[in-house]
Amino acid sequence: MPIAQMTQSGRVLAPADLDELERRLAVRLPVDYRDFLLRHNGGRPKPAAFPLVDGDESRLDLLYGVSDDEQRDVAEQTAWLEGDHILPDTIAVGVDAGGNHLCLGVAAHNLGKVYFVDHEELEGDTLDERAIELAGSWTEFEASIGQRE
Prior knowledge:
The protein has helices at about 15-25, 30-40, 75-80, 125-130, 140-145, and strands spanning about 5, 45, 50, 55-65, 90-95, 100-105, 115, 130-135. By secondary structure, it is α+β, with helices and mostly antiparallel strands. It has one domain: SMI1/KNR4-like. Strands 3-4-5-6-7-8 form a six-stranded antiparallel sheet. The chain has a two-stranded antiparallel ribbon with strand order 1-2.
């Protein structure tokens, strides 16, 4: 099920805007994520809770879109976070209320998978050890948002 309500979304996008985003990122976006950007162009979902593992949950603060505001822009956030805060072969797609990052797989081996990277997890020293796969696709992740509220 798509997100019920999105506030503070960006401007309405055309497919050409997403072609430009793919050029900036040097990736092909998963079709369902492109569809999400065309519907909402990021923003703050209501409700905002999403499941982690073992019954835990977190709350989305912001899903990035295409924006002139670098704090809300997928490409700018990806460039700023890559290397230390998001997994290789992913792009930054959002942040939770605690400053943890959500990223989306864009390579053949992880295409469309959504990951949560806990910036405070003490057990893992590497990004791979701090990352949790949340969903096998953007559609699956989007359907999980707000299910417990």
